[in-house]
Amino acid sequence: MFLLLFFLWVLIHSIVITVDGLNDHLQKADCILILGNTVNKDGTLSHRLQARVDKGYELYQKKYASKIIVSGGLGQEGYYEAREMKKYLVSKGIPAQDIIADEQAKTTHETMINYIPIARENNFHSVIVVSQFFHLTRSRAMLHSEGIQNVYDAHADYFEGRDVYAVLREFVAFYGFLLKRIIS
């Protein structure tokens, strides 16, 4: 019985974050925060990361925000994700002064923590988070837990088979985050 209830909990949670993540919550904001992901060994953005950056670019072009924060530390491939994301955006015509690179964050939690001083320094009071659909519910919750109230989101237009695994992994990550909040 316990296993059945647990399975139902995982299933319901997975459906909720999928539906939530596929329905963008968009309003004009002070900045767009693009979460990092893998940079290929040749320095190009992985398809998943490029889709995130392209979504941020699209939102910037549509004037949802006038600044972009790219976040991602040094990956095992030898590249700083944020640096490569910024290069890509500049190559697409976005002025470098409109892009802030957080090269220190290696996890979603670190990105959200690093966002706080960046937001204060730049007087940002609202943000649009861009990532894969399954990642957005927890990302919003993390920012809300840090006192950021005006959090919106948009999902990258990229899907692959491993998203099924990622949705299940997100169950663990989401409740791990909640448990840490309760303990601290």
Report on the structure:
The chain is of the alpha/beta class and 184 residues long. It has a single domain (24-183), classed as Rossmann fold (3-Layer(aba) Sandwich), CATH 3.40.50. 51% of the residues lie in helices and 14% in strands. The chain is built from six helices and five strands. The protein has a five-stranded parallel β-sheet with strand order 3-2-1-4-5, sandwiched between helices. α2 links the parallel β1 and β2 (68-71). The protein starts with a helix and ends with a helix. 36% of the residues are buried.
- Structural class determined from secondary elements: alpha/beta
User: Spatial order of the strands in the main sheet?
Assistant: 3-2-1-4-5
State the distance separating the first and last CA atoms: 32 Å
Task: Give the domain tally.
Answer: 1
DSSP helical segment count: 6
Q: What does the overall shape look like?
A: globular
Q: Give the uncertain stretches in residue-range form.
A: none
The name CATH uses for the topology is Rossmann fold
| The CATH architecture | 3-Layer(aba) Sandwich
Q: What share of residues are in beta strands?
A: 5-15%
What do the pLDDT scores average to? Answer: 94
The CATH homologous superfamily is named HUPs
Instruction: Count the E strands.
Output: 5
CATH class: Alpha Beta
Summarize the amount of helix as a percent range.
40-55%
Most strands sheet: 5 strands, parallel
Radius of gyration: 16 Å
